[in-house]
Specification:
single chain, alpha/beta, Aldehyde Dehydrogenase, Chain A, domain 1, Aldehyde Dehydrogenase, Chain A, domain 2, six-stranded mixed β-sheet, binds NADP nicotinamide-adenine-dinucleotide phosphate, binds magnesium ion
């Protein structure tokens, strides 16, 4: 295939126009499959943040968006979804170049889902409503739902465009103005989302895009008194920093953070379905999934056979350029991420876990260029090991056996995280019991890693708070105002 793709240098989208950064600085975004620079991107700094926040405040306060009839806002969001779908061939290539995910995953799964998110919230815009409590005869009481104001959406690199829509779509539906800061590793499709917004008819300043570093542009947004809310998805560590810094101006904050999600297979499960779910639960998107089922709990009686079968499937995975049809797994996102993942693999080996599959960099792929790691299965893992406790965010699975329901509930909940969980069983009562007992924001029964625009997603415990998706996400971008009208005696 022709691998030459020309990508234009990326600029900042500020107040309805494209601009270089005021400092003139740029940064390179790199293709993790061959380590080549894809494009130079203007790097937003604090000066650019000031200009963008001023434009967002002006747009918010003068009201071309928040005062527009909700049905008109909805039409523009719907149009954004349509334009996104029309541009899937271009956008999926950009997403694949930037992240290393396969073209199938970007083009057939994630971008269509991003379009669905925009169109779900197109409809949701018209369903925002307050309440009229009937508790008094001497007064008319009602609540208004008002947009929170200027929102900074700070997103990670694992699903760059999809996770951007998880924030941008409900915030726009609510009538907010949004400044989107993509991750440094993956700015390309966020810039295109800005273009889609302009082409769909968003007024200037309503959606702005500022590629730049977290510590400069990101922090400037978090501290800025003109920003009303920070909607963050990323690591638990950065989430904690953001909470501390946002306290200075008492901003609203929602944080969707890391996980170490349990995926639980009972002996009575459909074994083939469970194998597929265990496999895709950890290896989808190279394991760079916040909800990855990175702790696999297998009932003792089937443990040995299950792990052997799973390891065989992991060893059969074809790694390669994510643009090639035969490729089932691309490279991890960056050199830094590869080093982190290889560090965890070394720790697993040193700690005495058994490598059942993988366990190394795949330097035979692409002549040693690119950040390829073999899908790795560790067996004989114990709950104290680092690989059982910490989020690896790569294609590394830790398998732990369990004896019965109460044993696995205790082990599954033995983590600081609480993002998601999977349960595989044919026993309906057991499934529901586990769904209640596991302390996490999502529980999948006999499936894994599925998302619907209508179903809220987010964390318990140190996986964060606030919800993306569903009507709950819109609530996060609204203030409630109570109005009391005296009716006299
Ligand atoms: P990260 O380092 O926390 O970065 C996330 C975003 O925050 C990036 O845009 C980053 O910019 C920015 N950032 C970094 N430091 C900042 C600061 N001091 N102030 C403001 N912004 C800052 O996370 P990552 O390594 O990109 O992504 C992986 C993590 O995200 C994993 O832990 C994963 O579990 C989590 N995640 C969670 C969910 C969920 O829904 N719960 C979904 C996906 C990923 P730079 O790129 O310039 O550093
Ligand atoms: Mg980072």
């Amino acid at each position: 295939m022709d691998k030459s793709v020309t990508v234009e240098p990326g600029r900042l989208l500020i107040d309805g126009g494209w601009a270089e950064s005021r400092s003139g600085k740029t940064f390179a975004t790199v293709n993790p499959a061959d380590e080549a620079v894809i494009a130079q991107i203007s790097e937003a700094g604090p000066e650019d943040v000031d200009v963008a926040v001023a434009a967002a405040r002006k747009a918010f306060e003068s009201g071309p968006w928040s005062k527009m009839p909700a049905v008109e806002r909805g039409k523009i969001l719907w149009k954004m979804g349509e334009l996104l779908m029309e541009r899937v061939p271009q956008l999926s290539m950009l997403e694949t170049l930037d992240t290393g995910k396969t073209l199938f995953d970007s083009g057939k799964i994630e971008l269509p889902m991003a379009a669905q998110i925009l169109q779900f919230y197109a409809g949701a815009a018209t369903k925002i409503a307050g309440a009229t409590p009937s508790s008094r005869s001497d007064a008319f009481l009602y609540t208004l739902k008002e947009p929170v104001g200027v929102v900074a959406a700070i997103v990670p690199w694992n699903f760059p465009l999809l996770l951007a829509t998880w924030k941008v779509a409900p915030a726009l539906a609510a009538g907010c103005c949004v400044i989107l800061k993509p991750a440094s590793q993956t700015p390309l499709t966020a810039i295109e989302l800005g273009r889609i917004g302009l082409d769909a008819g968003l007024p200037p300043g309503v959606l702005q895009v500022l590629p730049g570093s977290g510590s400069l542009a990101g922090m400037a947004l978090v501290r800025h008194p003109g920003v009303d809310k920070v909607a963050f998805t990323g690591s638990t560590e950065v989430g904690k920093t953001i909470l501390r810094e946002a306290a200075g101006t008492l901003k609203r904050v929602s944080v969707e953070l890391g996980g170490k999600s349990p995926n639980i297979v009972f002996a009575d499960a459909d074994q083939e379905a469970a194998l597929r779910g265990a496999f895709s639960g950890i290896f989808y998107n190279k394991g760079e999934v916040c909800a990855a089922g990175s702790r696999l709990f297998v009932e003792e009686s089937i443990h040995e056979k299950f792990v052997a079968e799973l390891a065989g499937r992991a060893d059969a995975v074809v790694l390669g350029d994510p643009r090639e049809k035969a490729t089932r797994m691309g490279p991890v996102v960056s050199a830094g991420q590869m080093d982190t993942v290889l560090g965890y693999i070394a720790s697993g080996k040193d700690g005495g876990a058994r490598v059942a599959a993988g366990g190394r960099r795949a330097d035979e792929v692409n002549g040693g260029k690119g950040y390829f790691v073999r899908p790795t299965v560790f067996d004989g893992v114990t709950p104290e090991m680092k690989i059982a406790r910490e989020e690896i965010f790569g294609p590394v699975l830790s398998v732990l056996p369990f004896s019965d329901v109460s044993d696995v509930i205790a082990k599954a909940n033995g983590t600081i995280y609480g993002l998601a969980a999977g349960v595989w069983t044919k026993d309906v009562a057991k499934a529901h019991k586990l769904a209640r007992a596991i302390r996490s924001g999502t529980v999948w029964i006999n499936t894994y890693n599925l998302y619907d625009p209508a179903l809220p997603f987010g964390g318990f415990k140190q996986s964060g708070f606030g919800r993306d998706l569903g009507h709950e996400a819109i609530d996060g971008y609204l203030e409630t105002k109570s109005v009391w009208i005296d009716l006299g005696r």
